[in-house]
Design brief:
about 130 residues; alpha+beta; ATP Synthase, domain 1; Single alpha-helices involved in coiled-coils or other helix-helix interfaces; 2 helices; binds adenosine-5'-triphosphate
Length: about 130
């Protein structure tokens, strides 16, 4: 038995397929979902969605949003989401460098510091998912 997973962003559908198991990173921690899971909605943080099929695991980089779980279907509504093949590694490396600089420079301004930290987390997440 499998579960259907959809990953949708404001720009369109990033993934639609049947998997054995999917895990997402919610604000409360990692959530592993098997077919027949109870229905729930949870907010997502910056992290990797892991799609397990047999012995293979595909990853999607997600930058926050919501997961809606139903017994036969998981819908991930993401602010941004990329498959490894869709990740521009140079762009993520540049974003990481930029964010690291801002994190170290903006210690006094809490909002700018927080924003830079989130940009840094998005860049690191993309690099992790891309495998680079
Ligand atoms: P950047 O500073 O490089 O724009 P960001 O983290 O601020 O990075 P987001 O606001 O999360 O970017 O995303 C804006 C759009 O750009 C989204 O559609 C996202 O999928 C896309 N995107 C961002 N970074 C990358 C990347 N490294 N490779 C491919 N697409 C990316």
């Amino acid at each position: 038995m499998q579960i259907n997973v959809n990953v949708v962003t404001p720009d369109g559908k990033v993934y639609d397929g049947d998997v054995d198991m999917v895990s997402v990173v919610t604000t409360e921690g990692e959530l592993g979902i098997l077919p027949r899971h109870i229905s729930l909605v949870a907010p997502l943080t910056i992290g990797a969605v892991r799609l397990k099929k047999g012995t293979t695991v595909e990853k999607v980089a997600v930058s926050g949003g919501f997961v809606e779980v139903r017994p036969d279907q998981v819908t991930i509504l993401a602010e941004a989401a990329e498959l490894p093949s869709g990740i521009d590694v140079d762009r993520a490396r540049q974003a990481k460098e930029r964010a690291e600089k801002r994190v170290s420079e903006n210690k006094a301004d809490e909002i700018d510091h927080k924003r830079a930290e989130l940009a840094l987390r998005r860049a690191i997440n993309r690099l992790n998912v891309s495998g680079k």
